[in-house]
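Allow me, if you will, to draw on your knowledge of protein folds for a short while. A protein sequence and the structure tokens that stand for its backbone fold form the material at issue. I would ask you to consider whether the tokens describe a fold that such a sequence might reasonably adopt. Thank you for your consideration; the sequence and its tokens are set out here:
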Amino acid sequence: MDSSKGGKDTLTGLWNQKIFLRKLREALPELRDSKQEVSFIFGDIDRFDFINKEYGHQAGDEVLIYLADLAQSTLGKTAIISRFGGDEFAAVLPKVGREESLLRMDQMRRTIEAELHGWLSKKLGISVPKPISISIGIAACPTDGRTEYELLRKASEALYRAKEEGRNQIRLARAETMSTKTTHYTHSQLERLSKLSEELGTSEAELLREGMDDLLLKYEFNEFLDRSLMG
């Protein structure tokens, strides 16, 4: 059953994935071209399946609603926030760099860890003895990427590391090293790449990564949609 109406998720009132991605695609070029920083947040609730199984689906729904309300109050009116799917949330913070977004998300993470299980116990009249937590990945433009697909991919990878390294953590996108094998390109292609890099004021590596992201998208290989990484 479709859980969205008018572009909004009916449970949380946040943007659905389709509208969120459209808004990101629309907002990013202007922010990027005006040299404004923008942060992309990707997160999900730790062991959400256990919450549904142990306390019931109503408890799971209440957790999602709580998280949505907290995100809206913590991230501010300019943030674009989405229920990306299931227990996954995504947000775009215009004009907010990596350090500031890290501080805001850590405030949110700490609040959830300290208060959510007690709030849920009181709300439903049940005992929730263990804290509920979230894991978060952060990528920023232009530091970590210039396209929406690159930001999504890097934030997804950062979220995966947060989960793998123990959950209830925040991880920043990490720098990627890249070595170009010139045998893969013609001399003419490399000359044109160098000229384009100078004209746009960006590195050849960034342009090649952007091209690779477009290629992977063309063949529907979007790492950020691979749910198996979020287990």
About this structure: The radius of gyration is 19 Å. The chain has one domain: 4-175. The longest strand covers residues 38-45.
